[in-house]
Amino acid sequence: MNTSIQKAAEAIRTPGGLLVFTGAGISVESGIPSFRGQGGLWEQYDPAFIEIENFYARSEYCWAQIKKIFYDHWGAASPNPAHYAIAAMQKHGWVDTIVTQNIDALHQRAGARDVVEFHGTLDRLVCTKCRFRATPTPELLSGAVPRCPDCGAMLKPDFVFFGEGIPEEASDRAFRSAMTASAILVVGTSGEVMPACQLPYVVKRHGGLVIEVNPDESAFTRGGITDIFLQGKAGEVLPKLLAAAENEAKDPA
Ligand code: OAD
Hints:
By secondary structure, this protein is an alpha/beta fold.
């Protein structure tokens, strides 16, 4: 396994061929905890509050948890240098598609465009009955479970709860991009959640390169599909990778 930032910089500059794939680890330096591992969300909370059947059965309790964790705490977070580096790579024209498993919208706040949100987003509420979409305004977020302005049924955040399916359009776009990508830049994901974790394998099967940024090993490094492993925190490694690729662009070997 290669660890060369220079090699990774060369690979990510292949015009239009890069798929960026991110997970919770990219937002850790923004103050948002990851899900698994030490200090992860699931160490502190039982994930049942985002199980869809439980949400219907115990709406008031689940909503109170959702509001506290996702809107009051995560909502106050700002993008970090890793999110800005990815937005800059996209502006350079190196990125074909950005796929994130994250629901925190920090890629977009850093200036990234057209992000495929594989697990949906906190930035929208959706009606559990008529699928009306609403912006989570302070009024809708204050107090009890918000209600649909159209039909009066409960609203929920428009992200994928346990027991719900992946949005079809997001999944189609992500897997189509994986089939043609010359490289995938995998950042801050344990690689344990299906079906998103299949993306690097699809890239690899189609002849693309797997580049990974993570302070620890993941299912991809352990499984031997990572070609270039840049070990470290996303907020430190990605700005360096961006700088190396920009230098490469100015001064090709
Ligand atoms: P995990 O919590 O499973 O993994 C987070 C990864 O980030 C781990 O591999 C860490 O080593 C790594 N990490 C920690 N700090 C980092 C840093 N500063 N820079 C880079 N990496 C760092 O999160 P995901 O793989 O994203 O689903 O989890 C996938 C899905 O599981 C989530 O989207 C969520 C959850 O159930 C839904 O919400 C539907």
